[in-house]
Design brief:
The complex is a heterodimer of chains A (111) and B (116).
Chain A: E1 9-12, E2 18-23, E3 35-40, E4 47-50, E5 64-69, E6 72-77, E7 86-95, E8 99-102, E9 106-110
Parallel strand pairs in A: 1-9
Antiparallel strand pairs in A: 2-6, 3-4, 3-7, 5-6, 7-8, 7-9
Chain B: E1 3-7, E2 10-12, E3 18-25, E4 34-39, E5 45-51, E6 58-60, E7 68-73, E8 78-83, E9 92-98, E10 105-106, E11 110-114
The chains are: A mainly beta (111), B mainly beta (116).
Amino acid sequence: QSALTQPASVSGSPGQTITMSCTGTMSDVGSYNVLSWYQQHPGMAPKLIIHEANKRPSGISDRFSGSKSGNTASLTISGLQADDEAEYFCSAYAGGSQFVIFGGGTKLTVL
Amino acid sequence: EVKLEESGGGLKKPGESLRLSCAGSGFPFSTFEMNWVRQAPGKGLEWVSYINSRGDTTYYADSVKGRFTMSRDNAQNSVYLHMNNLRVDDGALYYCARGGLVYNLWGQGTLVTVSS
């Protein structure tokens, strides 16, 4: 399986709402609800912010929300804050030998 | 404190071997599945390998299958990645990550550089 497809960059102003996408295939995103989103600040390890497409781990702000429709998942961040500026990766269960695949990442810039 | 700490990275030549370690603390390590995930400089994340809690089931990415072996020692709260026949494109920051298919705890990574 190839990597999931994410836009290279998105941007928004403080207070705005942005949405980024993650597109896979019927063999991964479309077949399983194992869809996660990770936030990575420069020089830091990734941090889980969404799992099972729309569930937030304890401690993650409700400004972060996820959804999935067919082969595409989306991450929405509302009330943008400066600290939201980071790279965001989606991941999905792909089954077979690839197990888990990641998207190429979307860099969020808060203007 | 709940954490994972990787070690063992370094500079190697193509064809050489290296063993990475990851020590967990602050949680019941033996009950968790574990993974290695790598990130080449300026690139995205790539899942590398998985091991179940007992250490008797492993999976590998096609890019490392036959060259890398993941193992664990629950008595030492540690997982390992034995890397043989290293290639230039194996150079990356290697993270260990807790979980089966969803990674809710990550270490800070250990850097592997492969260059002639």
